Structure prediction request, 140 residues.
Amino acid sequence: MPLAWVPDVWTNSSRFNSRFDFKREGYALLERSAGAKRDITYFTHVREVLAQIPEEIAEGFGRYRPREFAYCLNVALGSLLEALTRLADGVDRRHFTEAECAQAIQLGKRCRRAARNLQAAKQRQIQAPKNRLPGKSAVH
Prediction:
């Protein structure tokens, strides 16, 4: 359900559809839970952290520089782990059961793997030697 003005390369990336899948499943989990909806602070915090994950990845994508993208992925990974922790807290608060969280947890782990793989690729780009023009010295 991405908007038309969002670049196709970003929205049609099958590798990163999990960033939206996790967020949407988290939203659905919250909506199905009367207890979570009554716990306004919990409900709001979980929704905010779920939204931050694709926002941070999109920000990095839009910067077009490997180092900045890797940084944004690092922030997104932190938000993702926070979201997973908050979902586990929802079980502790009896807002939902572990079984009810299973799909969201699986999607969160898939998103985490994809983000870590992309982060590793960005780190390789950062560490790769820069292309040098013939006849130019690498020493400045």
Remarks:
- The chain has one domain: 15-127.
- Residues 62 and 69 are 8 Å apart (CA to CA).
- Residues 15-127 form a domain with the de novo design (two linked rop proteins) fold (CATH 1.20.1440.60).
